[in-house]
Amino acid sequence: xxxxxxxxxxxxxxxxxxxxxxxxxxxxxxxxxxxxxxxxxxxxxxxxxxxxxxxxxxxxxxxxxxxxxxxxxxxxxxxxxxxxxxxxxxxxxxxxxxxxxxxxxxxxxxxxxxxxxxxxxxxxxxxxxxxxxxxxxxxxxxxxxxxxxxxxxxxxxxxxxxxxxxxxxxxxxxxxxxxxxxxxxxxxxxxxxxxxxxxxxxxxxxxxxxxxxxxxxxxxxxxxxxxxxxxxxxxxxxxxxxxxxxxxxxxxxxxxxxxxxxxxxxxxxxxxxxxxxxxxxxxxxxxxxxxxxxxxxxxxxxxxxxxxxxxxxxxxxxxxxxxxxxxxxxxxxxxxxxxxxxxxxxxxxxxxxxxxxxxxxxxxxxxxxxxxxxxxxxxxxxxxxxxxxxxxxxxxxxxxxxxxxxxxxxxxxxxxxxxxxxxxxxxxxxxxxxxxxxxxxxxxxxxxxxxxxxxxxxxxxxxxxxxxxxxxxxxxxxxxxxxxxxxx
Length: 488
Prior knowledge:
Elements: H1 2-18, E1 31-36, H2 55-62, E2 65-71, H3 77-86, H4 90-93, H5 109-113, E3 119-124, E4 137-139, H6 150-163, E5 167-172, H7 203-232, E6 239-244, H8 260-263, E7 264-270, E8 279-281, E9 285-286, H9 290-297, H10 312-315, E10 326-331, E11 343-348, E12 352-357, H11 367-370, H12 372-382, H13 386-396, E13 401-405, H14 423-440, H15 445-449, E14 458-460, E15 475-477
Parallel strand pairs: 1-5, 1-6, 2-8, 2-9, 3-4, 3-5
Antiparallel strand pairs: 2-7, 6-7, 10-11, 11-12, 12-13, 14-15
């Protein structure tokens, strides 16, 4: 009997030692920090091989994972941010033109994280509507209404600690959006810079490019400030941080286009204990994947209607691939100095990008074509500069279809649509784009003509400011057009 009792006690003790944590034990949920640049071509940043110095992002990348194939669904500020915060593509959410708004039925990351106890804060640039869909706690840096406030992050952490609840903090910078008046442009002497192949070499282009690079470095300093707050408050190890660069810059062939430089984005993630330091991923990911990734990290099942998919497996090193295709669109209708209509749709696989211009007979125009730099290029073209002629014409006049090999032609300058060796690629990508548009309820030109219905009656026009000098002040009224052409 004594022996049996001894064995029983030994067995109980063993179970106490090796039993897993009870199923009802509370798991510590990670804090979530998303940092967003504004109109920043990721290839211009030092961490991605560019000329703009980025010491803080360089260090951050050495501590986490750098993605080389991250894309967004719309190369303009407002639809981009709606995608980021909802996990839905633009037409489905209703937020596809610029200065737009989501449908009332849409639920944002705020509502999706709330059941798990998350407090959600957005500091800096907003450009999202309606407030009922995005009930963030808002803040901005004093004196810089569209920039994030590190002090607000400190307060969010303090609230999180006192309430014992995790937080989501979105730091939405306004840099390097024009006007380029922050940072030290003296670090980037215009004559020493290497211009991208989609820019005409003019004195004013070099001057603006110098100021733009300086403002990227200013954004890098903002990243450093925010990360320093995490360290100071002891939140580094339990915070998943993702930094993205948004769409391309506001020079021609980037923002407002579906070329790789317009839709491509830098994306770097750090999550100590989960993401291998100094790692890199070539997986295809999209901005619509951010919401489901945050939900997955928090242990929350995503709603079935989300377009995005979690890439936590990629972050943790359990997968090297994510998606086979990524999608994008551009709606020119309703933007400042935009064509009355010029819709673009696009799909890309791991190598090729297919672009469909819905109305190739129309002339493409926007704030960039009104800017003084573009006017200089037009004069150079008229004076016989062949490179200026080609770039000015190609930016405003495009064929019905375009196909690019993004490995050998990252700036998308050689159209391969007529190359019969790529007939199977062309056919597959056409089919993928057709299927995506049908699934999203995108009727092409008919959807484009309804764009103004998805814009509030008044909208802040700063995101359509020319690449040069001034952001538009105040609000510009956007009225329904007359029967034929009424430029907005």
